[in-house]
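User: Please fill in residues for this 110-position structure.
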């Protein structure tokens, strides 16, 4: 939500653009790292990658996805593989949707 994001960044459009570019590149990079952590059931890696996204998600107005990421972080912290497996489709879908939303925003700004 660009309006929410701008308000959280004191209406600084340049800062918003920088955060979006950075967040998109980090999400793309970490999406692959997350899949590797999941493959080897590296709960600490899963938790760290998920947690690392939270500040930017919240700044950019992705509040609902941030809540899902927080739950995923918690189940990873508890090393609950069954819960992680149940949440994986949602996490992957949200992760991809956020990348696509950021890309779309960047394209409309060109």
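Assistant: Residues filled in for all 110 positions:
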């Amino acid at each position: 939500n660009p309006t929410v994001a701008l308000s959280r960044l004191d209406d600084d459009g340049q800062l918003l653009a920088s955060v979006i570019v950075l967040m998109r590149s980090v999400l793309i990079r970490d999406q692959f790292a997350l899949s590797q952590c999941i493959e080897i059931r590296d709960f600490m890696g899963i938790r760290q990658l998920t947690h690392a996204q939270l500040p930017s998600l919240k700044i950019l107005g992705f509040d609902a996805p941030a809540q899902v990421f927080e739950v995923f972080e918690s189940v990873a912290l508890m090393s609950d593989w069954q819960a992680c497996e149940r949440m994986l489709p949602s996490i992957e879908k949200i992760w991809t949707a956020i990348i696509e939303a950021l890309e779309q925003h960047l394209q409309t700004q060109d």
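For context: The mean pLDDT is 92.
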